[in-house]
Fold:
Amino acid sequence: AQSVTQPDIHITVSEGASLELRCNYSYGATPYLFWYVQSPGQGLQLLLKYFSGDTLVQGIKGFEAEFKRSQSSFNLRKPSVHWSDAAEYFCAVGRYSSASKIIFGSGTRLSIRP
Amino acid sequence: GAGVSQSPRYKVAKRGQDVALRCDPISGHVSLFWYQQALGQGPEFLTYFQNEAQLDKSGLPSDRFFAERPEGSVSTLKIQRTQQEDSAVYLCASSPTPSGYSTDTQYFGPGTRLTVL
Structure:
């Protein structure tokens, strides 16, 4: 069965520092991977997605993620965070089939230290 | 343009009451999804519509949960005889493509926070 693990419940980084949020997935075939961000009172917004091809994916707001099959990981990175990046981040996995499910991880809450 | 909207944004119900949660997808979007997000957790899939057809309802936790999309646009999630464990944020998402393939980008609404006392 598909599953997603985000091992860090809460991370605090200083404004301007680099960021890496970890995501590990479990899936028997090539997964389809997503990162979403959820700000307070806002809906989930797609940051980026990976289906195939280049394993380094660029997203919106300066985020990128790298798919590493050997490590079953899809970590999210940003070279320099801004106070507005404070939010909840969700990694998710899906599969290309008629089943519409996307399986979400439990999320990582990002706080920014001034 | 307008995004996905949901109403009400907040709902407080007494245990045993019935509730109805509304989702207005982006105009023209064929696919519509409902998710349940418990406190401190990621969203969990409930059900999926392609136009008016409910193609996947495997995530509905019990027969107290019912969803419909009679004209292929607005959708309503109904919960009968609410229980405390139903307290959660209910998210709606829509997608422009006419299939449930999960490579589609889903556009999420702000959610309805349901509290059952």
Q: What stands out?
A: Chain A has a mean pLDDT of 90.
